[in-house]
Structures
1.
Amino acid sequence: MVDAPTLLPEARTDERARLGYAMVATAAALFAVNGSVSKVVLDSGLSSVDLAQIRASCAALGLLAFLLAFARPNLRVTGRELLFLVAFGVAGVALVQWLYFVAIHNLPVGIALLIEFTAPLFVALFARFVYRELIRRRIWVAVALCITGLALVVEVWAGVAFSTVGVTAALGGAFGLTAYLLMAERERRDRDAVSLSFYGFLFAALFWALVQPLWQFPWHVLDDTVSLQGNLAERTAPVWVLVGFIVVIGTMVTFSLLTGALRHVSATRASIVATLEPVLATVVAWLWLGETFGTAQLVGGAVVLAGILLAQSAR
């Protein structure tokens, strides 16, 4: 009887890497769809605070159920890290999500994501000047590309062609995402990704509960039926179905894919593949919502993406 062929270590490594890249790409595609879904929900009567609150609250419950079932010991928290987790949940999760929703409500989805995805550039600069890490000189080329590209995207010579509120929120989201990445990178040394995300969503939900008590949440809006807008304007869907998509597919599933992918590829390589998100989000928003861009935005977007990729490879 002939033994079944076995894969060489190099072949197994290549297969794991391909699986990891596929998982990140799938997550980026789902996040891209989630952007357009969120924009429709924000026009249904739910505010940016409402959507951030229900997303954080439901995600925290889902992750808690998972941890109770499969990794209960990981729920333990020491007094030393409690304050850090609170800051992580408020600054890194609650405010980032809220600023993202404000941005996409006032800007085309692709442009909002493009601005927010400049976070890796700020992460690299923070590592260079605060952590004193050795950063490749290409970071300065990345800075120049991002600044030039963003100037083209917002048409700065015309006094900013898009909503000032939207651009400001997207830039705020980029700084918030920078804090999230730096804090998550630090805490991942001592805590697994699932429990870290759970506590992030938990303290985000508690923060929003203080801002807006749950009994003031407009629960009645979830029963409404809304138009899907754009090229799907003739079709409708219940708001609760769209919110369910944001929570389950746009948060829980995508998070699981990204977390699982880090077992097969490095965080740096995963983040490079993740830059597919603003590209795919632009395509989805064009096909679904009918969002279009001028030549300046398309050229500027390509320049910004090049800068982001350089920044991610500089550390």
2.
Amino acid sequence: MKLYTARGDRGQTDLLGERVGKDDPRIDLLGELDETTSAIGLGRAHAQESRSRDALLTVQRDLYQIMAELAFTDATRPDAVRFPADRVAWLEDQTDAIAATVTLPRAFVVPGDTVPGAALDVARTVARRAERVAVHLDGQGQIPNPEILRYLNRLSSLLFILARAEDIAITGGPTLAKREDRG
């Protein structure tokens, strides 16, 4: 089996329903979401807490469902691929449950105390970038389902609290951005 088709050699690729340029904003968003799920996978590979690994795998599967919906044109998109609102509720529940077990300082946190926490902080920033691209496309009427924006908006909160949970589990607490000693 060949892993390449050479169909994209002239700068085009397929959405499900039409051939578009690889610089099409919809393709850009799919790439941002692919990068997001890969960054989350790195965080999951390093995560020490089983609840982190489980939640992250579920998020990756949710992102694949979002990518499936976005890969169709409006004319060809089946109702079966529509991303459901209950996934946003699940994300909120997970974030709240983990936040209830983590005491956050009342200051900015410097990422990098642990490998799992740092990987999840990178995933958070990648997810935020994907969200910004989605917001731009939504402004052009290109996001067919408002649940996608809602999910992406909440995803960074889950990644932030999972990063802090990983840091606390390994080091006991995060490093603060503001120096405590002024000497």
